[in-house]
Amino acid sequence: MLLSLSNSLFLSIFFLLPLSMAKREKAKSTTGKAEGPYRCVENFDNLAREDFEGKDTLDKLFEHAVQRFGNTDCLGTRELLNEENETQPSGKIFKKSAVKLILGEYRWLSYDEVDQIISHLGSGLAALGQQPKSTIAIFCETRAEWMITAQACFRRNFPLVTLYATLGEEAVAFGLNECGATHLITSAELLETKLKNVLPDMLNLKHVIYVDNKSISRTGYPEGIQIYSMQAVQELGAKPDNLSVAVQRPQPTDLAVVMYTSGSTGRPKGVMIIHSNLIAGMTGQCERIPGLGPKDTYIGYLPLAHVLEMTAEISCMTYGCRIGYSSPQTLSDQSTKIKKGSKGDCSVLRPTLMAAVPEIMDRIYKNVMNKVQEMSYVQRTLFKLGYNYKLEQIKMGYDAPLCNMLLFKKVKALLGGNIRMMLSGGAPLSSATQRFMNICFCCPVGQGYGLTETCGAGTITEVADYSTGRVGAPLICCEVKLRDWVEGGYTSQDQPHPRGEIMIGGPNVTMGYYKSEHLNNDFWVDEQGQRWFCTGDVGEIHSDGCLQIVDRKKDLVKLQAGEYVSLGKVESALKNCPLIDNICAYANSDQNYVISFVVPNQKQLTTLANNNGISVAWEEICNHPAMEKEVLKAIKEVAASIKLQRFEIPVKVRLSPEPWTPETGLVTDAFKLKRKELKNHFQTDIERMYGGK
């Protein structure tokens, strides 16, 4: 009775209370011809190159921050209190990946302390023979030591070669040999599990520095390679004789980073990024984040070898934010490595800013919605009423503060409760997931578009823009053109909006691929001396100047009957299916239909199997023909609701019991599909589903 009465009272207040939030402004517009170039109106005459006058290299940018924010918190790491092996009822210990962590509070280094460590580390690397303008490599997980290493290299003009921590042994060996690095920074775990076997193949490597405060055995390592802890290198650099050696500082045109891509289409490519490229790109990014400053706390957990995370963290340091480090396995209270009953990193750090890739946001969305389905009928109805009400208010540019307080507070607490802005990049974010994050986490979710080749800068949505499916107007550092792609059916004359292949130009466009001149056809310089990059993505420019990504040239397949299928479009649409956690669409030009590989949602599909009288192990559920039919049925229902064309809808499916993670090699660190690897992985199934043709 009390529950019923409180619900009635709530609903009365809910619908009668006047809205307290003013209607939001429209997004900034751009101007230009149908095909472009399009620029942000604030910098129509001149593209921005610097955020702070005279701070034209990365070392100057950080020193400027140290002068302004010296004794405030800069980089934070949680203290490890204990590790526990999870045991089964039988007493058996789970594999290593099931180790649970008990973590304490964040321990912080101030800007001044970080500055001193950078000075000592750079001096120590120089004492070990590292030369200015000679590459130095980092192969390490996201952590404070990664950023400290990067800043030390920027200061000493050591071009930093970045490699994803999830790259396989062959890809790491390829990258290190191609760049010719003599010094490598890594972690003890990666050194022992991935590098040890391939160190004999590293032709130029002489020194390996591991970042952990522990001792490791030198047994089994090649004699010609010296191994040091980072602490030992810092102590070497702190000696007066080494500290007194003159530092050769970089110029804006000097190489700052060689960033190896995650290799979604084959071997990783090293993108050459000079200091002025990064300065310009971050200038554009920061302009779209209102109020960025010392009151902000950023949570760093995405790969720092990805341009999105690296530029986000350097930008935060530039403006005096503090950065607390995390990982996807410790992010929330429910994360896989957090012991039940312990707090995840978000709960302890309570960040205000966060970057994410769509795969992680999609996972949060589905987990919360699964919890909603487990609620009582009254609770579920109340949640849906509040959700739909706030959705309508957001569409009109308003907020629903009472809903935020009474309905979404617990959901918001999953990420610490203080998030004021999230930025999504790396891949398109579905409209359903973006709306969910807007509503339940009570903060704007900005979508960004950029590539490693453009320093991650291209477009970002305005905070005031609550539309979905778009990635915003060009940043103040660059401009956008559309090039007709007649074969794909995209031209500047398309209605209602011009469409075409996206080209980005500006000072943020990088210098090409390292030692791979034959791959540089997508870079060029125009008559005014401005660099351009052709992205391979297809965009549509809306009437207010905002860009929407509608296709990717490499994802387009022409079927036997002549229809073009955008595999990315199909995948993005069908990810909204509750039974699907991940999907890869596949088509052959000598066939007339699409097939798909699906990572099903284990909880949803297991429940469905049990309801159909199928009570077997998870792998058997995924191999059961009846379950394939159920997933296909769900796919067709979702496809019909969003009006996919008949030829775009997969007609056959293969269910994968194992999730696709960067460790499996089937997706990149940004969780983009590696189509070639997926094709090889499922080759037998492709032949089966296409009748052996």
UniProtKB/TrEMBL annotation:
GO terms, biological process: long-chain fatty-acyl-CoA metabolic process; neuron differentiation
Enzyme class, UniProt record, top EC level: ligase
Alphabetized UniProt keyword annotations: Fatty acid metabolism, Ligase, Lipid metabolism, Signal
Catalytic reaction equation(s): a long-chain fatty acid + ATP + CoA = a long-chain fatty acyl-CoA + AMP + diphosphate
Keyword Nucleotide-binding part of the UniProt annotation: no
One cellular-component annotation, GO: lipid droplet
MF GO annotations: arachidonate-CoA ligase activity
Signal peptide: 1-22
EC code(s) of this entry: 6.2.1.3
InterPro entries reported in the protein's UniProt record: AMP-bd_C_sf (IPR045851), AMP-binding_CS (IPR020845), AMP-dep_synth/lig_dom (IPR000873), ANL_N_sf (IPR042099)
PROSITE patterns tied to this protein: AMP_BINDING
Name of this protein: long-chain-fatty-acid--CoA ligase
UniProt source species: Oncorhynchus mykiss (Rainbow trout)
